[in-house]
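Q: Start with the shorter request: fold the first protein.
A: Done. Sequence, then structure:
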Amino acid sequence: MNKVLITGALSGIGLASAKHFLNKNWTVVLAGRNKNNDVLDELKETYEGGFFFIKADVSKNSDVEHLYRETKMLIDGVDCIVNNAGIISHGLLHEESEKNWDDLMNTDVKSIYLTSKYFIPDLIKKGGGTIVNTASISGIAADYKMPIYNAAKGAVVNLTRAMALDYAEYNIRVNSVCPSAVRTKMLNPDNIIKYAQANPLKRICEPEEIAKAIYFLATDESSYCNGVNLPVTGGLDIWTGQPK
């Protein structure tokens, strides 16, 4: 049975991905900063096992080391890592605090380094695996008043490429998904209509749609995809901004 680690797994894209992998009969390790008993109880009622929750702040080395050791003990490692943990910040760069910069960079970028540090050696030993990073359309284009997020997701996009080059010889494929606005807690409800109107499909992306893309990149269905930063945007990324 295939096994996957998903970070930021108790809400939004992470939770949708966990459910999708469980529906495909994968064993899932859900990592999150805070335990949510309501979510875990719902999963237990629906799936009756097949998953484990490990509390871990993946921006911290000690927590990721604990996450690795617990995962190794529970299921003897994983076949896929979904680096999904992320936060967002809004504001002009000169008005942003140093804490916001550090928190966002640590959560969105450093976390990928840390999971790689602990989990990739086992993937190499076992002969391969897959890694899927949650990047963003904000990593391949810019937004108004989101400079730290743009910088972080831009780093994830190019980190994905660099990892894909370095680990291909070990049969480890590394790709990312680059969603546009998704209906999660990170999206201000007041902006949903605006985002929908700006999109060629005239609607907001649902977390389950990103989960399907993540699963595609995690499996042999994408066996020749490596270093791909896959836009899942409804076509928003192909638009020049020219008025209709």
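Q: Next, the second protein, separately.
A: Sequence, then structure:
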Amino acid sequence: MVRFMGISAGLLMLAAAPAAANPAGAAGDYPTATIADYVLACMQTNGRTRQALESCSCSIDVIASILPYDRYERAETFKSMSLTTGENAGLFRESKPAKEARTELKRAQAEADVRCF
């Protein structure tokens, strides 16, 4: 076995395996904090198990393969702002761009549910 700075080549290949399993680097454009937030919230809902971790990680990868990060961020912003109270929050609930963005996110999440859970 070839050694590289004290680490065997087999160990390096094993460490690279999860990246290879990620289809086309799906979440590669998403900031790490966004991915972590999604996975943590998903695990909160689906249980704090290894299976939930794998399913939730898969889920954000599928979403990322469907929605570019800027559209995901936009939809999440509309979604969170629509939960606020007051007259101005209606813009985030009722406007055409808000509805379209939330619908697009819901479709991506539904596809992720089918593929991952």
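Q: Describe the second briefly.
A: Confidence is low (pLDDT under 50) at residues 1-24. The longest strand covers residues 3-4.
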